[in-house]
Amino acid sequence: MSDEQRDNDLPEIRGPSKSAVKREMLALQGLGQRLMESGPRIWDQAELSTTVRDALEESRRLKGNIALRRHVRRLGKLLRGEDAEQVQTLFNRIDNAHAQDMGRFHRLERWRDRLIGEGDAALEEMLAVCPDADRQRLRQMIRSARKELEGGKAPAASRKLFKYIRELGLE
């Protein structure tokens, strides 16, 4: 029997490719980097083992770039034994909450800009959406914000208007 025939008779054992293993390791290192940059409050939510937790605490003492890079690789190796999907889910939830907060912030900014730019039409629309708002106070704030804008002054009244809109709980 030739070597070629013997090689054909053996079952092929195929695991993940080197590239797949490297991608997974880089993903775990990225997760470790993100954990390292976050604080103990996030570490508590992630329910990490004491080994990973100790490594994260140790990362706070490291100062040099090379040492930090080496430590990130170590965290990646330690995270192999952890539930990385649970940690990733936690970060996804945090990112999603941040995106929702930013969306709300931008909606409030649009309301403020519309109130300053459009005047009574936008005010009536806002009062229809939020009837608890103080009409007189809003008009005064809008008037002050317009004067600031026209005079090229610092936008203090515009900030006060934004803060009041945010207090109204307007979405």
CATH topology of the largest domain: Diphtheria Toxin Repressor, domain 2
Element order, helices and strands? HHHHHHHHH
C-alpha Rg (nearest Å): 28 Å
Shape: elongated
Low-confidence stretches: none
Whole-number average pLDDT? Answer: 85
| Helix proportion | over 70%
Query: How many strands, which pairing sense, and closed or not: the largest β-sheet?
Result: none
Q: Tell me the number of helical segments per DSSP (H or I, 4 or more residues long).
A: 9
Strand content: under 5%
Gap between N and C termini, in Å? Answer: 78 Å
Walk me through this protein's architecture:
With 171 residues, the chain is mainly α. It has 2 domains: 16-83, Diphtheria Toxin Repressor, domain 2, CATH 1.10.60; 99-167, Diphtheria Toxin Repressor, domain 2. It is 78% helix and 0% strand. It contains 9 helices and no strands. The protein has helices at residues 3-9, 18-37, 40-46, 50-59, 65-79, 84-118, 120-129, 135-151, 156-167. Helix 2 crosses helix 5 and helix 6 (84-118) crosses helix 9. The longest helix is centred in the middle third of the chain and has 35 residues, at 84-118. It is elongated. It starts with a helix and ends with a helix. The mean pLDDT is 85.
